[in-house]
UniProtKB/TrEMBL annotation, chain A:
GO cellular component, one term: plasma membrane
Keywords: Cell membrane, Membrane, Transmembrane, Transmembrane helix, Transport
Keyword Oxidoreductase: no
Protein name: Binding-protein-dependent transport systems inner membrane component
Pfam family, one: BPD_transp_1
Similarity-based family: Belongs to the binding-protein-dependent transport system permease family.
Bilayer-spanning residue ranges: 21-40, 77-103, 115-136, 148-168, 189-214, 247-268
All copies of domain ABC transmembrane type-1, residue ranges: 78-268
PROSITE patterns on file: ABC_TM1 (PS50928)
Source organism per UniProt: Beutenbergia cavernae (strain ATCC BAA-8 / DSM 12333 / CCUG 43141 / JCM 11478 / NBRC 16432 / NCIMB 13614 / HKI 0122)
UniProtKB/TrEMBL annotation, chain B:
Descriptive protein name: Binding-protein-dependent transport systems inner membrane component
Keyword Transmembrane: yes
Membrane topology according to the record: Multi-pass membrane protein
Source organism of this protein record: Beutenbergia cavernae (strain ATCC BAA-8 / DSM 12333 / CCUG 43141 / JCM 11478 / NBRC 16432 / NCIMB 13614 / HKI 0122)
Sequence intervals crossing the membrane: 12-34, 69-91, 103-123, 150-176, 197-220, 226-247, 254-277
């Protein structure tokens, strides 16, 4: 993507590289390095909050202590967050793909533009939180993972539908017609012809949604209060008071819950990047 | 009975629409009603506009509204002013550009809670790395998060730090879509790098600018989690925004007042996002 066509002298290239690396190192790498070195320190050494390499590594004991805290609460939180993320992403992908497909294929009509307008509003308008709590209580899903899943699906649908809709409109209609002539019904047409063709956008949606659900703090805070169904972000938030003087453990916690998004990033960085921009620019 | 089966039946879209209507649209619509009540989640008393009056009359609530605007601007403006030149710099082509872009983007993937806690430590006036580094060059660093005049802006700075990656990315895709010939022609005509940036890059990345402005404004107006983790709205109410007031009133059991805050945020976001998006996307710029 980057263009090197313009003639830039070799010397200039080196200067630009060195200067930008230095700036980025100070502004962006140091904070992350700080998280890592603090997570590896002993309790007393971490209390100094200094940016130094630990005198001895406490990787394993810090890790074990964080995991054991409050009867393995972080482990339970990891399971909860994983279940929540997988369930939300699967449901969002299927529903948004179907919705985007219908919106892309239907001819313009009043019904279609009404649906589009309502969905697009969801990209802008902030969710009404307390009435949602009230609603979840009324149907008995407050403080439950299924309840939060359904809410997060609803919040994720607008963005994903927009992506799917744009992508479906690049698939030629002739394909639909060919499948229909071969006798495929609507469901068959979608699930065995169209949906497999959406693979690349589906991967993008899966990555963006899973990172955002896994990192979500606001909605678990409102819809999953208490220690029963805690998620990893809530755990980190709740451990703050307990680990008040144990910065090594707090930063080990941060480090641990950053691993899944980090792995995603390393495996799919190009896709994350293209997906975010295509979604943003429509 | 003749049954016309539509190939692209709305029944296919129905599950998604139903879920969205039930969990997003219904709460949004009922919030207009509940904002007019004193509400215990099980019972409500209609009190008219009292909740909204409270927002306007009580200094700490109306301050939260003002802070929300300050925060939105304080996060949006730097994202544009840093993001666009940075994007132009990154696509100008040098060996480390790809790496630099990835590193800048990385904070996007770290949770807000993690970022908030980390920067609370880094911004500590006595032990924090930032003030220690400033002290090393002879500058007495401020009390980033405990100075009432500075707390909100400190959080905004962290917000810019973590969001600049996406803004830059959007600008990069805008800059690379400009035909290379424009730059070449300008260079032939003797335009320097600065001139090319202002005469070509800035006007022709207008759609990208529009996207960044709108996303940053909406995000800034809805901000909650970073502020909550870093300052809890304090010191005092100095860094309270609508998002944190909504949460505070909710935990205090003032459900009607909390919902009124939500409605105010709804109105502000809609009233700003809609005209801004119209204004910014109105005309394409030609050379």
């Amino acid at each position: 993507m980057s263009r090197r066509a313009r003639p830039a002298g070799r010397g200039r290239d080196v200067v630009k590289s060195i200067v930008s690396l230095a700036v980025v190192l100070v502004l962006f790498v140091v904070p992350f390095a700080f998280i890592v070195v603090t997570a590896l320190k002993s309790r007393s050494e971490s209390a100094e909050l200094r940016f130094t390499w630990p005198s001895e590594l406490h990787l394993i004991d810090n890790l074990v202590t964080v995991l054991e805290t409050r009867q393995y609460m972080l482990v339970r939180a990891f399971i909860n967050s994983t279940v929540l993320t997988v369930a939300t992403v699967v449901v969002v992908v299927v529903l948004a793909a179907m919705l985007g497909y219908v919106l892309a294929r239907r001819h313009p009509s009043r019904v279609r533009s009404a649906i589009s307008a309502i969905i697009l509003a969801g990209l802008i308008v902030p969710a009404a939180i307390v009435p949602t709590v009230w609603l979840l209580q009324a149907i008995g899903l407050y403080r439950t993972i299924p309840g939060l899943t359904l809410v997060l699906v609803a919040y994720g649908l607008p963005f994903c539908t927009v992506l799917y809709r744009a992508f479906v409109s690049t698939i030629p209609r002739e394909l639909d017609e060919a499948a229909m002539i071969d006798g495929a019904g609507p469901a068959r047409l979608f699930f065995s012809v169209i949906f497999p063709l959406l693979r690349s956008i589906t991967i993008t949606v899966v990555i963006i949604q899973s990172v955002s659900v896994f990192n979500d703090f606001l909605h678990p805070l409102y819809y999953l209060p208490g220690n029963e169904n805690v998620t990893v972000q809530l755990t980190l938030y709740n451990f703050q008071s307990q680990f008040n003087t144990q910065w090594n453990l707090l930063f080990m916690n941060i480090l641990l819950i950053t691993v899944p998004p980090l792995v995603m990033f390393i495996l799919f960085s190009r896709r994350i990047v293209s997906g975010m921009t295509s979604g943003a620019l429509k | 009975m003749v049954r016309i089966r539509h190939q692209y039946s709305y029944w296919f879209a129905a599950p998604g629409i139903a879920l969205y209507l039930f969990f997003f649209v219904v709460p949004s619509l009922t919030s207009f009603f509940f904002s007019l009540t004193r509400w215990s989640l099980t019972e409500w008393t209609f009190i008219g506009l009292d909740n909204f009056r409270a927002f306007l009359d009580e200094p700490f609530l109306s301050k939260a509204i003002a802070n929300t605007f300050v925060y939105a601007l304080a996060t949006m403006v730097p994202k544009v002013l840093i993001g666009l030149p940075l994007a132009a710099f990154l696509v100008s082509g040098f060996r480390a550009a790809g790496f630099v872009r990835s590193v800048i983007f990385f904070p996007t993937l770290v949770s807000t809670v993690g970022i908030g806690i980390t920067f609370r430590v880094l911004m500590n006036p006595t032990y924090g790395l930032i003030d220690q580094a400033l002290g090393a060059v002879g500058i007495r660093g401020p009390e980033w998060l405990s100075d009432p005049d500075l707390a909100l802006l400190s959080v905004a700075a962290v917000d810019v730090w973590s969001g600049i990656g996406i803004a830059t990315l959007i600008f990069v895709s805008g800059v690379v879509s400009i035909p290379q010939q424009y730059f070449e022609a300008a260079t032939v005509d003797g335009a320097g790098a600065l001139r090319r940036f202002f005469a070509i890059t800035v006007p022709l990345t207008r759609p990208a600018t529009a996207t960044v402005v709108i996303l940053a404004l909406i995000g800034g107006l809805r901000a909650f989690d970073l502020i909550w983790v870093m300052t809890g709205g304090g010191p005092g109410f100095a860094s309270d925004v609508l998002g944190s007031v909504i949460f505070k009133q909710y935990t205090a059991g003032f459900y009607g007042l909390s919902t009124a805050g939500n409605v105010i945020m709804f109105v502000i976001v809609a009233a700003i996002a809609y005209p801004v998006s119209r204004l910014l996307t109105r005309r394409e710029v030609d050379l």
